[in-house]
């Protein structure tokens, strides 16, 4: 099991019951990746099916959502292939704001 903190910022918290910080335990697979975390979020944390498209597009984090792993751009950490470790903090921040 790997325990991580997940933050939803920039208005994304609305999709997650207006809660910005979540503690998530991923038990399968034994060495989960950010891809597994994204799947977990979609399957277990987004309760309104209409909100899935706010977070993901074509099976990955939607363009316009900045994704950080321990305050580092996920692209520098390997993106979806990054293997999560206990205590990691994964932040998703929407850069798309209505006007």
Automatic annotation (TrEMBL):
SUPFAM superfamilies: MoaD/ThiS. CDD domains: Ubl_Urm1. Transmembrane segments: none annotated. GO terms for cellular component: cytosol. Its main location: cytoplasm. There is a cross-link at residue 99 (Glycyl lysine isopeptide (Gly-Lys) (interchain with K-? in acceptor proteins)). Coiled coil: none annotated. C-terminal thiocarboxylation occurs in 2 steps, it is first acyl-adenylated (-COAMP) via the hesA/moeB/thiF part of UBA4, then thiocarboxylated (-COSH) via the rhodanese domain of UBA4. PANTHER family: RURM1 PROTEIN. This is Ubiquitin-related modifier 1.
């Amino acid at each position: 099991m790997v325990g991580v903190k997940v933050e939803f910022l920039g208005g994304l918290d609305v999709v997650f019951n207006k809660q910005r910080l979540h503690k998530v335990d991923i038990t399968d697979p034994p060495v989960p990746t950010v891809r597994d975390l994204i799947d977990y979020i979609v399957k277990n944390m987004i309760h309104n099916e209409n909100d899935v498209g706010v977070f993901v597009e074509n099976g990955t984090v939607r363009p316009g959502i900045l994704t950080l792993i321990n305050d580092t751009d996920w692209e520098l950490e390997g993106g979806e292939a990054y293997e999560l470790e206990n205590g990691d903090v994964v932040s998703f921040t929407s850069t798309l704001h209505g006007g």
